[in-house]
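Section 3.1 - Work completed
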Amino acid sequence: MSLFDSMRQGGANSGTSMEEAQRQFMELIKLHAYADQFIDRDEEHKLLQQAVDKGMSLEQGMELIAAYATSKGYAVERLIEQRAEQALVRAAADKKGLERDEFETILQAFVMESNGMIPHATAAIRLKEKTLKLGLKVKEGGLFGSSWFSKIGA
């Protein structure tokens, strides 16, 4: 039987079980997170493409990435952004708008959870964009005319 015959019959990997595909995928996750303990959106996209190529769903790939990162204390950019978004919504809902100290606390957590891979200024701009996209109210102005939120990224 030639190599071409085996490819027509499903290839050399046709007998690979889903467990083996998941094991291989976990090794790829380790490889991507090895150097900086951080998986950015581009790396995650590449990993998810490989998960799909191995016969997994996007959801399975995302779950495996999240589980591995959590177990090792690694950061996943998408998950950090989701947590920050939830924190912004909670903070803005508690009062009549998002206050500066709440924003700063969420910003510090965002930078810290990224293992320093997302710089403070970049994180501030992303949080501002999320706040605006979500249509959250921001407490700004007041007696001394502070425009802290408007100055972000300016």
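Second construct:
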Amino acid sequence: MSAVSAKSRKQTISSFLDALDRHDVEVMMSHMSDECVFETASGPEIFGFRYLGREDVRTGYSSLWKDLSDAHWVVSSIEVCGDRAFSEWTVSATLPDGTWFEADGVDLCEFEGEKISVTISYRKF
């Protein structure tokens, strides 16, 4: 069993997702490890877009809000199992063409100690 409690990791994920909803990349990054990875729900590759390392991941999250400036996430559940966690959420936003968008999704996360090292997002279309 990991030295970091499931309760602590659940609080980390909750704070991370709250910051995502507020579009606060600095708080989000405070929860990420130095060698973090973020894979988006969509993009040109099978894994979407892959961002590697703190600055690249910061850029990846910030780019979400450029295209979806009014994006709002509602989290329905967070579960932790050892060094892994998942969260279920619904995102809503106005797309650049003015179309309203709403979809359910899941983030799968891995931890290194108290920090999130990997976040992989999946979304229904």
